[in-house]
Write a structure and sequence with these properties.
The structure holds two protein chains of two kinds. By secondary structure, chain A is an alpha/beta fold. Chain A has ten helices and twelve strands. The longest helix of chain B has 36 residues. Classes of the chains: A alpha/beta, B mainly alpha.
Chain lengths: 279, 341
């Protein structure tokens, strides 16, 4: 299978703190790839390394078969777009200007856009459903609307790989589903490889083709949601009691947190091995 | 993008044309106003192509006022652009070369150069440049780190460096006892007089390439406003862009300080005014600040010449009297913005 991202023995340090521990994996082309794991497990650092923002301390990162350090900033930006965590700062620009900025890597130094670029921006705005407020300034929008604007900007870059850092954090349920559906459509319609960091294990289970579970900078497990999201692996990784069963929609695991007061309740059909332990 | 938003090229052209008209009007006003009434006739005579104007008025027009107006245009453009670039790079609406102490550092460097007996060019210009780079590095170093009050720590560092520079300047002046003293003090307060065409030409040769550079980097400045991470992943080499812009700005500021002394707050007034008028796009703002800043400085210099009954006052007095209240207003407003969030 063709891969678009190949990582070998990747390590990263913040001072003496090791944020990534010899990670090795590949991401197939056209895959919806979601990285999950507890806080401080190195998910964001991994994403920033893929985006070329953080340089690896050791190991190799290849994007589309070419070592990442051999790309120019512009060259990388034509192939790979990055949506960081929702920034809290205010931006003075209008929605359509921000989306059009996504064309920058394809344009000259002044970023003078042609009709074709405006067409691509218009398409990206329609795709993400932000065209109705394209003339508004960013500070007049809600969190979910802003996130869609930044995603439209990234789509406007026409990347082969799209990286997103917790795009659904702090959004309500409707907006979460809307953004995840958008990513799925982007993958299906345009063949874009989507690599996302998420805190929401259940959303990840519903949408991911492949999951990477990380803990303390190292890989715990990689594979399909059914392979990765098992009770044994998750409880050890997150260090809290969890209930893992199948989603009523079928086919994928569902993870439920277990409050302490339910620990001894027979309303929770806990996994058999734990029942054995508690007896 | 739609019919209601004209293309970028058109917007740049319209804004530049409008501000050029303003600049030309300001320049004409500055050329004809002054203590000698016959200058206006000399100017009309020039436009009619006549040769019979009063030679005295001709001399005042072309030897004194014309270079002075050109100098004001250059300096106003440079200082406005300096403010615009600092505000974009540091993502702080209150950043300005004078407030951050970069102008003060240039002045210290320039005074050292004068006291060491260097010529104005290249000696004093180089010591001024060294002074501006040193203070800029100091301010950025002082305000870096994991400070929660990042925005304010930049300003605080600037204020402290500025205070230190003022003390050094006063110290150096106190040690000076010869005829250079009056010159230094008058130059320091911001003075556009005593400029010949040669000096203006030299300054233009230093400043105009910086203006062109800023225009060339105006789109990366837009992208930088989206945050470093987004800018990088949209193809901006932020390390190179930031370094080039900081060095070019402090070079430009030091060149104006070495020539005309300390002119504060120009870099605050014009970028803010023009942002309100033409929006946040730096591809429009860079030419707008160059032209608008030039017009602003010409008018300030005109006020400095005509307000006093006798003689004239340093133009730095006028720019500070307009700019300082605006700074306080902006400080107040950005404070209430922070509270709202």
């Amino acid at each position: 299978m063709q891969t678009v991202v190949d990582i070998e023995e990747l390590s990263h340090f913040y001072g003496s703190f090791q944020a990534l521990r010899e990670l090795s994996f590949s991401v197939p082309k056209g895959c919806f790839f979601i990285v999950i794991g507890p806080n401080g497990s190195g998910k964001t650092t991994l994403l920033k390394t893929l985006a070329g923002i953080a340089a690896p301390a050791s190991g190799a990162v290849s994007i589309l078969g070419r070592p990442i350090e051999r790309y120019t900033r512009k060259g990388l930006a034509k192939r790979l777009a990055f949506v960081p965590q929702l920034p809290s700062e205010e931006f003075p620009f209008r929605v359509r200007d921000i989306v059009l900025m996504g064309r920058s890597p394809h344009l000259g130094v002044l970023g003078l856009d042609r009709e074709a670029d405006r067409g691509i921006a218009r398409q990206a705005m329609e795709f993400t459903g932000v065209e109705s407020f394209s003339a508004r300034r960013l500070e007049q929008l809600s969190g979910g609307e802003r996130q869609r604007v930044f995603i439209a900007r990234a789509i406007c870059q026409e990347p082969e790989i799209l990286l997103l850092d917790e795009p659904t954090a702090a959004l309500d349920l409707a907006h979460q589903v809307r953004i995840m559906d958008l990513m799925e459509r982007l993958k299906k319609d345009r063949g874009v490889t989507v690599i996302m960091v998420s805190h929401d294990v259940n959303l990840a289970a519903m949408y991911a083709d492949r999951l990477l579970l990380m803990r303390e900078g190292a890989m715990v497990s990689i594979g399909s949601p059914a392979e990765v999201l098992t009770y044994e692996v998750l409880e050890k990784t997150y260090e809290c009691p969890l209930l893992v069963d199948e989603s009523p929609l079928g086919g994928v695991p569902r993870v439920t947190v277990v409050p302490r007061r339910y620990m001894d309740s027979d309303r929770v059909p806990l996994a058999p091995d734990r029942l054995d332990n508690s007896d | 993008m739609n019919a209601d938003s004209p293309t970028l090229g058109l917007r740049i052209a319209v804004v530049s044309a409008a501000l050029s008209v303003l600049l030309i009007l300001a320049a004409l006003l500055a050329l004809v106003f002054g203590s000698t009434d016959t200058v206006m006739e000399a100017l009309f005579a020039f436009f009619r192509g006549a040769e019979k104007a009063d030679p005295m008025a001709q001399t005042i027009l072309w030897q004194i006022r014309f270079p002075r107006v050109l100098l004001a245009v250059l300096v106003g453009a440079a200082l406005s652009l300096g403010g615009l670039v600092f505000q974009a790079l540091l993502r702080n609406p209150l950043a300005e070369p004078y407030i951050l102490g970069v102008s003060g550092g240039s002045a210290v460097g320039a005074i050292f150069g004068i006291l060491l007996g260097f010529s104005r060019f290249p000696g004093v210009s180089l010591t001024a440049f060294a002074g501006s780079m040193a203070t800029l590095a100091l301010v950025l170093m002082l305000s870096s780190g994991q400070s929660v009050l990042k925005k304010d720590s930049l300003l605080l560092a600037g204020v402290m460096v500025n205070a230190f520079c003022s003390a050094v300047i006063t110290f150096l002046i106190s040690l000076t006892q010869d005829s250079r003293l009056h010159n230094i003090i008058y130059w320091l307060m911001g003075d556009l007089g005593q400029s010949g065409m040669q000096q203006v030409g030299l300054l233009a040769a230093m400043l105009v390439p910086c203006f062109v550079l800023f225009f060339a980097l105006s789109h990366p400045m837009n992208l930088l406003l989206m945050g470093k991470e987004m800018a990088q992943t949209m193809g901006v080499n932020i390390r190179v862009v930031t370094l080039v812009l900081l060095v070019a700005t402090s070079f430009m500021v030091s060149a104006t300080v070495a020539n005309c002394g300390l002119l504060g707050f120009v870099g605050l007034v014009m970028p803010h005014l023009l942002r309100l008028l033409v929006g946040p796009d730096h591809r429009v703002l860079v030419p707008a600040c160059a032209l608008g800043g030039g017009a602003f400085m010409v008018l300030c210099d005109l006020l400095a010449r005509v307000l006093p009954r006798q003689g004239e006052m340093p133009v730095g007095v006028i720019t500070a009297m307009i700019g300082a209240p605006l700074f306080i207003y902006l400080l107040k407003r950005s404070g209430s913005d922070a509270n709202r969030r």
